[in-house]
Task: inverse folding
């Protein structure tokens, strides 16, 4: 589907042979595009460009897990920040609207937008402008900021505390046990996605949705998942170390409300890190909301580095 407006051409790429064209605009995900296409996480019809002649002015692309029918995230939206075109934001808005109409099933809520940004992006004028321009384009289509998150990384050689002994760790028995604990830790959660879910569903529904939509889909061993208990066996919290399509990750960590503020999160994070480090992880990735200060401080104490941030926007 090619759309021509005045001298502007908006269309999806023809196939992997046009990755060179699509990659003319720089972004940290460029190195993953070819493999994503090969693995079915992206499709040519989900990768759109806005061209004026042979000049790439803007691009947009969606991502999904292998085998999924519909896209899960809009994770690429780039403009030629060096262009002097006074209508550049209009071009990008036209691109997003035209592509969304073809990519997102009719009547469906558009997938959320995620953008990786430098950890210090607010201190960098060029990055501040670039992030602001992309957010402005999406705001014109009705999107609103949901959350800014810290992206964190543990690197080999970083010390991992030995087990302290005050908590015991065991494997998760079954899906019902982990879903029940996920339901319980939603009480008082600081996580923006969870709070948004709770505005539309019960805690049990929110936990089950998260479990079925993410945790249950990891192909890494569930034997890695751990529940922390007191010496008498009462659960304190849980941690889910896993591997996604790209990295080892701390996929979920939660402390039951009655045990918060006692440092239990440090023990849980250390346990999850130990499990992944024992399997020769080249790095361990994690993320937490900028506003979740207790969790951010726990990652910092554990030696995780804030190497990047992400900005998430959603449509009502």
Result:
């Amino acid at each position: 589907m090619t759309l021509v407006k005045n001298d502007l051409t908006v269309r999806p790429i023809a196939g992997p042979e046009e990755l060179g064209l699509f990659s003319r605009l720089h972004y940290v995900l460029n190195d993953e595009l070819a493999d994503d296409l090969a693995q079915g996480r992206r499709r040519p019809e989900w990768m759109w460009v806005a061209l004026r002649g042979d000049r790439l002015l803007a691009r947009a692309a969606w991502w999904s897990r292998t085998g999924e029918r519909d896209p899960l995230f809009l994770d690429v939206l780039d403009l030629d920040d060096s262009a002097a075109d006074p209508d550049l934001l209009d071009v990008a808005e036209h691109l997003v609207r035209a592509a969304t109409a073809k990519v997102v099933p009719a009547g469906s809520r558009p997938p959320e937008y995620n953008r990786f940004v430098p950890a210090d992006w607010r201190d960098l004028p060029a990055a501040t402008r670039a992030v602001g321009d992309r957010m402005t384009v999406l705001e014109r289509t009705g999107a609103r900021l949901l959350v800014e998150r810290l992206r964190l990384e543990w690197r080999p050689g970083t010390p991992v505390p030995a087990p302290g002994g005050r908590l015991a760790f065991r494997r998760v028995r079954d899906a019902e046990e982990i879903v029940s604990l996920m339901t319980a830790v939603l009480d008082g959660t600081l996580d923006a996605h969870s709070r948004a879910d709770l505005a539309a569903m019960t805690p049990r529904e929110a936990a089950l949705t998260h479990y079925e939509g993410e945790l249950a889909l990891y192909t890494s061993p569930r034997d890695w998942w751990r529940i922390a208990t007191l010496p008498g066996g009462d659960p304190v919290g849980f941690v889910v170390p896993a591997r996604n399509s790209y990295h080892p990750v701390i996929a979920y960590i939660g402390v039951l409300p009655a045990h918060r503020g006692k440092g239990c999160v440090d023990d849980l994070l250390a346990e999850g890190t130990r499990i992944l480090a024992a399997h020769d992880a080249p790095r361990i990735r994690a993320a937490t909301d900028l506003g979740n200060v207790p969790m951010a401080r726990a990652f910092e104490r554990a030696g995780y580095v804030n190497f990047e941030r992400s900005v998430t926007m959603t449509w009502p």
About this structure: The longest helix spans residues 88-103. The mean pLDDT is 95.
